[in-house]
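Hi X.,

You mentioned you wanted examples for the new student's onboarding notes, showing what a folding record looks like when two proteins sit in one file. Here is a clean example. The first protein comes first, with its sequence line followed by its structure tokens.
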Amino acid sequence: MKLKIKNILSFILVGAMLGACSLDEDPTFPSEELLFSDIEGANTVLNGCYSGLADFNYWGADFHHLTDLGSGMYNTNKDANLKDIAALNPYSSQNYVENVWKGCFRTIERCNDLIAGINKSSLSEDATKDILGQAYFLRSFTYFNLVRLYGKAPLRIEPASSKNVNAGLSSSAQIYEQIISDANKAKEYLDDFRLDGRPTTYAANMLLAKVYMTLAANQTSAETEYWQLAYNEAIEVYGKFSLVADYRSLWFEETSNYTSESIFEIAGNVENTLRHLQLFTASNGNLGRSVWGRIKPNVEMYDQHAAAYSADPRIGATFQTEWYKYNSAGKATLQKTYPVFKNRQNKDKSYPFLAKYFIKNPESLNYNTNMNLVAYRYSDLLLMLAEIENELNGPANAYQYVNEVLDRARNSADAPSAEPTDWTGLSQEQFREAIMAEYNFELLGEGHDWFNVRRRGYDYFKEKVIDAHNNTPIYDFNKSRDVEYADNARTMLFPIPASEITANPNISASDQNPGY
């Protein structure tokens, strides 16, 4: 179900409950008793949770600003960000660092209100079970983002009040304990099947699998039980979804939403649009000249994919290497980017763009779209199972999962391609290297990049991102648009936002993450 304007407006009133400055004022919005007197009211509050998730400061835009530009895998057309976040040099008062933190807590606090309101209401358990499951899932999903991005955060699981609004930082271990608890409740309460893209019990399984894979870090199965726990969750999802026939169809508005491989997606519509088309389409890349081109893959991301599978149909579906630039008179000029254009310091052509979220109709006057953002899809689950199985038992039974993804890729062309070929004959170490690269080839730009390249520790991140980038021959770091990365372990986390340290008396400068 897509967010409706009336639901968003209704929840603006509910959101007023969350501000500490209004805690003691007489309310001018519907009372808690009224909101939770029937299922319609509870669903209005639930829609408010989703509006928080889809907000510009969270998944609507700034989550991509933060995690893509901070991943080490993207460049930007926004000059101001070339020397800070796109150079792996964010600072604690940077707008993206601040906004995502606030957007996450806005969503968490709305989930807290919903959970508490339902638990205090007289609504039946059967009627509210799935609603509660969605709230627990969204809270778990959001805290999982927070703990990976910032390392620590206040653990707020009750409605905001004057007594708890300034909670101190909780450790990552405490936060992960809550994430796992919430995800297990979601798994218990959620429905098994939906048609609206919202989470099901299988989305909770996938969330838990990702949590356990993160906790496993770079350890082998002999050193940690987390790989087995990850397998136990991921295998529950196997076979419950299916890959669409053509990879390319995932990136067209007409065929992208609610597909057979969608496990959890964030909905928007032209009235309440998500901003991915605006962020990823080249500046002046539509007739309305309303797009920004803020996020575009680094050259090495294209090179690595082409070197692995030169004839992979996913390359054309992932990288936009030709586009039309419009001037104020509406005249369009064809631009050809890297790899055809190899000169440096050109905003329009020195880097490819991400085709997945590039506006498909260049004559559009705006960036508004009915295209949702798919946060979890089945091909990711298959790659996860391949990685997990390889860690537990070696590659023998892991090929089956990744080869499903590769087979779909080969057949996503007008005529079947010879590449990428099925995997066979790899050692466990070779498989580990290959599957980590495969996440980039299959999922680039889909919200997982920052996490996947850091999940195996700093040494891995340094080798695969920092060193790979700095040693890409075509770059000229004397030119303003090519940015050299510093070898600095602080890039494994973002700083705790300056506003939180300033405003919260229970957090001090000494609590800041190392290196900031």
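Then the second protein repeats the pattern, sequence line and then tokens:
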Amino acid sequence: MKSLTEAEAAERAALIEVERYDIAVDLTELPEGPRVRTTSTITFATREPGATTFVDAAATVLRATLNGRDLGKAEGGRLVLSGLESHNTLVVDCEQENTRDGAGVHKAVDPADGEVYLWTSLEPDQARFVWACFDQPDLKAPHAFTVTAPPSWTVTSNSGEATTSATGASTVWTFADTPPLSPYNTVVNAGPFHQVRRSVGGYDLGLYCRRSLAPVLERDADGLFELTGQGLQFYGEQFGMPFPQKRYDQVFVPEFGGAMENYGCVTVTDSYLRRAEPTPTETEFTTRILLHEMAHMWFGNIVTMRWWDDLWLNESFAEFAANWCATEATRFVNSWARHLTDHKLTAYLADQGPISHPIRQPIRDVAQAMSIFDSITYPKGAAVLRQLQAYVGEDAFRAGMTAYFSRFAWQNTTLSDLTDELAAASGKDLDAWRDGWLTTAGTDRFVLETTGEQPVLVGTGPAGPPRPQVLAVSAYTERDGRLERTQRLLADVDDVRTRLDLPSGADFYLVNDDDLTFATTRPAQPQAAAKLPTPIARAVAVAATWDALINGEETAAATVTGLVPVLEVETAPAVAETYLRLAADVAEYWAPGALQPALNEQVAQAALRLAADPSRRQVALRTLARVTTDLDALFDAAGDDVDLGWRALIRKSELGGDTGAQVADLLARDPDPDAKVRAVTVRAAAPDAEAKEEVWRALTGREVPLGSLSVVAAAFWRPGQDEVLAGYGDRYLEFLPSADHGAMVPAFFYTQFLFPVFGVDEALLARAVAAAEGDLTPLVAKTVRGRADEVARMLRSRAETVGGDA
């Protein structure tokens, strides 16, 4: 299928104006078969009567007429529309049979009860695989959906409540017109959903899931409704525009990857409905996801980027807003620390490697656009926007946002539209800031000189001086083994050297205190992190240590040794949980093989100490299950806890134990409809050739649900199993050409999570990089290059010592 280019999109947008879509969707064949049928009726005007353009139609076109005239066949996913009139009516009948692993639409069968569920996910240009449309963001129009479905099903879509009528053995759901939306912002979900509704803050809120997960949704419903109400109120106030629709639904669906911001009807993978009681990190992660998608109601739906080069206007802002809202409007007041210790660390890695790119860059076509849904656009973009908020001031930032939405509601925008409003609100010239942060790749670095009368902040940027920015530098005094902040200075950086009005001779200085900018700092002082007084200060110190590790300036052993005291004093539960995972990751992926047992034991002992605290026991035991070799104690600790039981079995399988009878017992006791995936994960961890072959076929055969793919793949690639894993690196390279089969998210997941991290050497990585230079899609190629760089850093860390430390 042809990928729409920016030039083609601009030409089409200049030629036509879409007046409305009326889309009929027929799902009546789905319970027994794979087929979805649609009819798109598109009315549009043209500015040049007699001209020619095309409509996107990548499903099988059964019949198409333009102003009553039959059209020819579609080629490359496009129908040519010639002889356009001033006002036109296009009718296209399509069918899509590949609803298992194709693009745009998916049929899932619940293994618990055989019930069928359908969802659509249309970003960036996947609507064309379901119904004919002008599939580009700047051709917005109202959409009216009519859906024919089995009578026992519930259908959800953007505009909320529908009228229903019976016709034969089916029910027709007729939805009101949406506001003007880009095609990718629309949605249809259907199936025998369990539904919970509640009125909060004047909004009619709905939660949906498959029937077999009803108890889990009911358990979490109160928290989800509270969060949704808090988010809608916060965003409405900060953006000067309440969400303009009374109804707001969130639909948790099976076999989905991540979440999608469809206007008024967000879809979310139901793997986020945690089958065990969720941990603090899991709860905060789900909070961030739901607030991220909610922010898209404004950044993406109400105001939409003109073209994909301004994807940051959607994703960076949604990521920033989610953390901002969580911190200011919910109980998750340490969300910025959590953001730094998890997502932002991935951005620092990406931005210092071969896949670094400007946050905003030219995008030639949609295929290239798929490759920038990444850690540069998301967490780095969010951090840069937090820097922009600090740079202009929060009041001016809020005023600029209000003006932006007031001026551009239901329209499309570009970079300058937003920065012009912020410049006007703040009175600051943002040209240099914009050029430095949005159109320049790479990471700034700061060090502090303390030899003179006053400290001097010395910065370097990707091309010389640091970018213009405001960041905090604080002086700390040590008392009774703890560091207390005695002074905080906001430094306005506009040159290489910035003299700071701070006392000389402080016991400790923290550069980028409060994490207001996106920059790495030196020196890394892991021994100081545990002494700092706040979660965000500790997180800044940990980030410096992590950055030293990935750049070969610190050893895995020193990193773990520095992390353990921090996680034991951390007061923010979700951040402490992140440190546990990070310490285990460093021991597992970055340490030399000879040191792994000792580092695992160090993490295990820390986990055991934390487990003595009832509020941290669950998290600590999960980490223990990952690193311990004392299986008897592990199973005793797990007791009747099914989730911990599975984790213990994965560890037992990894260590070569026989798990067959215990797996059968847990399968019988586990109420999770997807429990069989846990059994596959146990099998994946085994150092057994037959088990590896069986699981590899399941992974590459797309038999593992997307929401579980990362967990199963992590169990497959285990340290100490190089012999049995030999050859799977080459099999990964053989799989790569088919990795992009289907939609954007699966392509990323399969490329990212199946990449070999053990049983791999520099030669294999070189072949992977060579493959990325070949005939792979931009998304797959970039993901391969990024993973190859990360694993190359791991290999160097496993093989080398720094400063004599092994």
